[in-house]
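Protocol step 4 of 5: obtain the predicted structure for the target chain.
Materials: sequence only (see below). No template structures provided, no constraints applied. The aim of this step is simply to have a reference model before the mutagenesis design in step 5. Sequence pasted as it appears in the construct record:
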Amino acid sequence: MSGHHHDHGADAGDKRIWWAILVNVLLTFAQIAGGILSGSLSLIADALHNFSDAASLVIAYGARRISRRPADDTMTFGYVRAEIVAALINYTTLIVIGLYLFYEAVMRFINPEPIEGWIVVIVASIALVIDVVTAMLTYALSKSSMNIRAAFLHNVADALGSVGVIIAGTVVLIYGWIWIDPAITLLIAGYILWQAFTEIGSSIRLLMMATPEDVDAVQVVLDLRSVEGVEDVHHVHVWAIDEGHNAFEAHIVVADASFMEVAKVKRRVRKILQEKHGIAHSTLEIETSDDRCDNDSKVIGHEVDKL
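Step 4 output (structure tokens):
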């Protein structure tokens, strides 16, 4: 029964993403046409970023579908990290777009061009409405998925870009200050870069199998060494399989190697990992004082032979 609810929720989420993709593709064409007609760089910049919104949503959607595939003999952990790869791609494209807009804005300062303010304001206002609709479609999903959050942040940056374009067009209409257009573009680029660099670290950490930010590996070792029946802990690895599932493996040295006592020690260790550190998946290699591995100098991690 729970699987039915999960599939229903996933399908509903997929439909919201598809609607978001559709409205963003239509908006992109409208903004490009408006930018060409008006001569507004910030409107074309906004269209470019909006196209990246649609592309990021397509990537997010594809990764979302792939991540549901079950584990098999070639992908024993399953495909859940497809969403993390998608998030990294989307954050990277945000950085590329931000740098491109920065370059274009500087060039427009050097070679200013006339702008038709009314077209800019009208098209950007339509864009803002679409951006808000897209944000509403993806906000709930973004809270629990790094993948959707990356696409959502594309959209948030675009919404702010639309606000900036409206301001630029209005100022051009009232005062005729065409320099405001590249100035607003610089602000949009700066925000996009700040946002992307702030968020990209999480996806890189997960793909690099870093210790989850909410887990203190040193404290985990101390807690396990205090477990009744545990003499020592070494070769500890803690990583995240995906955003919601942390994993742990270690060598546990026990005082009593009897089958019953080893089983009890494992239960105690797993209970500590689950209840105190939120680690549900653990792989424990049991050793005794007599047969502990020779290469036990590393408590956290393991020695790596370098060529």
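Step 4 remarks: Strands lie at 230-242, 245-254, 281-288. The radius of gyration is 26 Å.
Proceed to step 5.
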